[in-house]
Amino acid sequence: MDTEKLHEEYRQFQQTNEGFAEMMVLSKEGTILFLTDSTFLSTEDAQNLMDAWLTRKSAAVLGEDRYPILSWETIQFAARNVKGKGALIGCLTKSDNYIVVHLEPHCKTPPAIAAINLNRWSWHIA
Fold first, then answer.
1. Is residue 112 part of a domain?
2. In degrees rounded to 5, what are phi and psi of residue 121?
3. Within 10 Å of residue 10's Cβ, how many Cβ atoms?
4. Where are the beta strands (DSSP E) in the chain?
5. How confident is the chain (126 residues) per 10-residue block, as mean pLDDT?
6. Residue 78 is part of a domain; what is its CATH number?
7. pTM for this predicted structure
C-alpha cells in the first residue's frame, strides 16, 4: 500500500466531503496499517474496534468514548457517539483491509450515508 498516495487521495476526498476527519486502515485483527493522526487511535482501540465490528457487539469503545453501533455489516460499519464526539464509519476494501473514518461532530452527513460514500471512494483507492 502506497501510504503517501492514500493520504493525498484522502485529503482530496475530504475537500468534497465535509466533516470527514481522521482516517485509518486496519487489518481484520486490528493491526494499524495506516493512520492519518497517530494520536487518535491506540493499538488496543484498533483491536477493540475491529472486534466490535466483526463480532457484532452493541458498541465500539475508543479510549473513554463509546460509539453505539448503528450498522455492522461485513462490508460497512457505522457508529455514533451520543455525547457529541462524532461518529465512526468504515468499509471493507477490495484488498481485504478495513478503512475507518472518524466523522466530526458537526458532520451533516448521516453515518450510514457517509459509510456508503466512503465505500465508493475506497473501492477505487485501497
1. yes
2. -65, -50
3. 24
4. 20-26, 32-35, 59-62, 65-72, 76-80, 87-92, 98-103
5. 84 94 96 93 96 95 94 91 95 92 95 93 78
6. 3.30.450.30
7. 0.92
